Amino acid sequence: MSKLPWKKLIGPYVLLLCEAIGTTSFFSYMGYMILSFGTVTDEEKVGYYAGYVASSFSLAQFVSSFFWGRMSDIFGRKPILLIGSTGSVISVLGVGTSWSLPMLIVSRTINGVLNGNIGVIKTYIGEITDKSNQIEAFGWIGLTWGLGSILGPMIGGLLIKPVENYPALFSGSVLFSKFPYLLPNLVIAVATAIGTVFTFVTMKETLRSAIKMEVISNTSHIKTKRNGKKYNQLDEDQEIDDQEDNIDEERLVSNNNININSSNNSINSNKSNKSNKSNKSNNNNNSILIIDQNGNDIQEIMDDSHTIHNDNHNEDISSDESPIILNSGESTPNNERRDGATDENDEIPLVDRAEQEMMEKDATITFGVKQLTDSTDSLDDQVQEIDQGVTKYETNVFKNKLIIATSSLYAAIGFVFTMYDESFPLWALSPVSKGGLKFSSSQIGLSGMIGGISVIFMQLVIIKPFIRRFGLVHTFKYGLILAIATFMAIPLLTYLSPYGVYDHISDSQMDSLSSLSTSSDYVEPPSKSSVVGFWIVTGILLFIRNVAGQLVFTPVMTLINNSATSRSKGAANGLGQSAVALTRAIAPTIASVCLAWSLSSGHPFPINHYLIFIMMSLISVGPVLYTHFKIPLSLNYPIEEGEQIGEDKFVAIHE
After folding, report:
1. Of 338, 333, 277, which is closest to residue 308 (Cα–Cα)?
2. With contact defined as beta carbons under 8 Å apart, do 386 and 365 qualify?
3. 603, HSE (Cβ side, Cα atoms, 13 Å)
4. Mean of the per-residue pLDDT values of the chain
5. Count of CB atoms situated within 10 Å of the CB of 261
6. Which of 334, 574, 584, 618 sits most deeply, having the most CB atoms within 10 A of its CB?
7. pTM score
8. What is the four-CA torsion angle of 174, 180, 181, 187, rounded to 10 degrees?
9. Domains and CATH numbers, the chain
């Protein structure tokens, strides 16, 4: 198993952590902020306006995520991440300085419009990992978000209203008196800016043209044989990047679907070439050896015979069928050129001379069924023309059935789990007599902490061996089945809740039960054994539900990556992010309305408090069945360039 390339991953993970902190911090004080505007006086109506604010961000992401993903396929992953992070800084500062509900909605919308980082980060992770470590890398997305979910509410809760909460430090501050919610957003903005600079410095671009001549431009992988010895074309003191920083040249040069045929390299002197070939071992003055990152010989190009020897396939290919020609001139005794002149520039790097000769020759570029002819343009123009051909033949993500299928699965489970996240706190706060649990806000927080612990445990201990054992597709399916089981079991907690004795107590009083001991509302508290037993069962169910969530989300994010080739990964992840943003914008409204109706008195099973959980279970059945019958097991691994995807055929192009 390959180790994670942490030097490449740390920057994007830092940005993701800042995203998580900014999002969860805002939700910790959003209700209080809306009340401070004076638009709403009834606390019971705050939830409706909070829904508008939350939906504005999700709808904006629905509109923009695919666009940013597509832009990352064109301009690269790194610049789009930097733009998104800049958008986050602008947005959080806008939130902190909002003086009205419309401005707050606009600020959150700006974040959704300018920031497509989550989808682009998934694309980036998919490109710098391989099938042996991609699961661990995608698992760290959940782990990073979980850490942000812990830090965010702490920052938001501790730093709002600093003039009131920390008068010794901020009593004379006009700025924080006018904008009491600015400080946490200012801290997050500074952290995001630092993370952006850090990412700019440490992150390396991963978007590469599938057919660019990396063998020519990156001479660290080209060595020549002189007097039977290999030497590096670069200066000896030049450092070579880490192995994972470079494209595997074996994949590049072994592709036979890209042919560069030299019309001037006809085999007019074939007989003499054959005789020269016998002296190859003694006169290797101008032969070029292309090696991979591990130093293994892959392709040998010998100017004396214009043949390529492929060590991997043990076959000789004539020069007019060579995938890549790096010709530095005929090899003749006394280092004479073809015109008979002595080569006085023997010290010129062979690659430079190969490029010069390539530019001077007529080249016929065969690309699948498309033939592009250019006899005068430079090598760069030829590469650009090839890129245009690739773009023309590249598959549209909207026509790729597997990308559509995996994105739809992501949207479906996003809808289900957003319904759960929205409805669980509201259901748990409801009276036991109406089917709830009568939790206090601190007990809701304890439930969230159990979820955070389970996410960390899952990513560090369970997820990797589980997926290695069952594969991505089966793991996703089993995770959903486990989630369905917990959805049906959780409402049973109503019948175990010991807090029904507090049904007549208001929510604010629930947070200060100790003060009730001397009030007229005093009630006999539940026994410790019943409370301990209840929390053991509750903790187990919540732990399992969060484990199920990780078994679902980590595979589906990886499946989207695996369903796309490198030229469409950004668009594929952008499409998935847009789809899930749409369902996450809709789910809270549906969940809150259905839950409120089901908790009203008088409704029997199954339209009592069970209704919302039954809905989540039924919706989850669809993805289980679709995955079982329609999703191929080949998506357990990344699709290779040129491999068939569904019914769409790709031209075989290797990076």
Report:
1. 277
2. yes
3. 17
4. 73
5. 18
6. 574
7. 0.64
8. 40
9. 1-207 (1.20.1250.20), 214-393 (no CATH), 401-509+526-655 (1.20.1250.20)
Query: pLDDT digit string (tens) for 440-483?
Result: 767 877 887 787 788 888 888 888 889 989 999 999 999 999 99
Other CB atoms within 10 A of residue 342 CB:
10
- C-alpha to C-alpha distance for 512 and 502, rounded to whole angstroms: 12
Other residues' Cβ atoms within 10 Å of the Cβ of residue 278 = 10
pLDDT at 389 over 70: no
Backbone angles phi, psi at 342, to 5 degrees: -75, 135
| CB-based contact 15:85 (threshold 8 Å) | yes
Residues 585, 577 contacting (CB under 8 angstroms):
no
Which residues, other chains included, contact 605 with Cβ-Cβ below 8 Å and sequence gap of 6+? none
Q: How far apart are CA 476 and CA 470, in angstroms?
A: 10
Res. 537: pLDDT tops 60: yes
Q: Compute the distance between CA of residue 264 and CA of residue 493 in angstroms, rounded to an integer.
A: 81
The pLDDT score that the predictor gives to residue 575 is: 92
Both tokens of 338, joined, read: 């073809």
Closest CA to 281 of 212, 343, 229: 229
Contact 498, 574 (CB under 8 A): no
pLDDT at 385 over 60: no
| Cβ pair 220, 295 in contact under 8 A | no
Summarize pLDDT for 153-208 with one digit per residue, the tens.
888 888 888 998 888 888 888 999 999 999 999 999 999 999 999 988 888 888 76
Buried residues in 67-86 as b, exposed as e (16+ CB within 10 A)? ebbbbbbeebbbebbbbbbe
Say how far apart CA 547 and CA 239 lie, in whole Å: 44
Helical axes 463-489 vs 528-562, angle rounded to 10°? 130
- Count how many residues are written for the chain: 655
Residue 341 CA: distances (Å) to CA of 285, 354, 481, 606: 16, 18, 77, 94
Which position has the token pair 């369903």? 563
Q: How far is CA 445 from the centre of its chain?
A: 28
Give the type of residue at 218.
Answer: N
Residues 423, 592 contacting (CB under 8 angstroms): yes
Backbone angles phi, psi at 503, to 5 degrees: -60, -35
* C-beta separation of 133 from 125 below 8 A: no
Give the integer Cα–Cα distance in Å for 546 and 559.
20
Q: Which helix (H) or strand (E) holds 120?
A: helix 117-128
Question: Are the beta carbons of 18 and 138 closer than 8 angstroms?
Answer: no
| Cβ contact 551:55 at 8 Å | no
Comparing 77 with 426, which gets the higher pLDDT?
77
- Give strand ranges (E) for 173-291: 222-226, 229-232, 258-262, 287-291
What is the token pair recorded at 608?
């009592």
Angle, CA of 509, 511 and 514, to the nearest 5°: 80
Q: According to the model, what pLDDT value does residue 506 have?
A: 55
348 three-class SS: coil
Task: List, for residues 12-49, the tens digit of each pLDDT value.
Answer: 899 999 988 888 888 778 878 888 888 777 655 666 77
